[in-house]
Amino acid sequence: MTAPTAIRLVIADDHPVFRDGLASLLDPLDGIEVVARARDGAEAVAAAREHRPDVVIMDVQMPELNGIEATRRVVADNPATGVLVLTMGEDDGTVLAALRAGARGYLRKGAEQDEIVRAITTVHEGGVVFGASLAARIAEVLAPAPSGPVRPFPELTERETEILDRIAAGRSNPQIAAELFLSPKTVRNNVTHILAKLQATDRAEIIIRARDKGLGSG
Questions:
Q1: Model-level pTM?
Q2: Range of the domain at 193
Q3: Domain final residue, candidates 142, 169, 185
Q4: Do 203 and 124 sit in the same domain of this protein?
Q5: Which PANTHER family match (predicted)?
Q6: In Å, how far are 30, 74, 108, 134 from 41, measured between CA atoms?
């Protein structure tokens, strides 16, 4: 009787301790083979093209290329590759952006080994899986929106929309921080989240898109 083929896995995470630790945890298991590790989104895309894995475990916040855009490119290159997003965050905008990019699963980094293995297997088999803490919230995100004013970018939080409005108006990060009584680091982090959720390459792109939606005119 022929033994089942192992699920070929690429792990992409910019934190070496987590990336290598997860690989060391999963690779010895029967039925799983870690074929490559990637330090950023660009390496993840390249590794997926080279190895044609069954599943890519993808972090969201990574240098060079964020995990949302990397997911979009991996799925575009090979729709048969399932992407399982594994990250610290679980805000609605990130979940929605991951889904739109083509991810089939979304788990928090605090998930247990058994839960991660089950998720890898489910994604490999063509299913969609989310951690228990996210399932209800994802249903809410995907539910029809109530009647009323439509937000220009529903995947963004209210704070991120507020910051994007000021970016579109030509404000710099220090100016935004002063106006909203935020720390410069908080503003930088929010700008990074905005770029990832909107799958934008740079600040100029989000300014154009925000102004097209009517932001920045206040």
A1: 0.64
A2: 158-212
A3: 142
A4: no
A5: TWO-COMPONENT RESPONSE REGULATOR
A6: 27, 10, 18, 24
Which CATH number does the domain housing residue 187 bear?
A: 1.10.10.10
Residue-level pLDDT, tens digit, the chain, 218 residues: 445 689 999 999 999 999 999 999 999 999 999 999 999 999 999 999 999 999 999 998 888 899 999 999 999 999 999 999 987 766 667 777 888 899 998 888 888 888 899 999 999 998 888 765 566 665 655 565 555 566 789 889 989 999 999 999 999 999 999 999 999 999 999 999 999 999 888 899 999 999 988 898 86
**For residue 121, which phi and psi values (nearest 5 degrees)?**
-65, -45
Q: Element (H or E) spanning 16, and its range?
A: helix 16-26
- The 3-state DSSP class for residue 32 equals strand
Pair (138, 175) in one structural domain: no
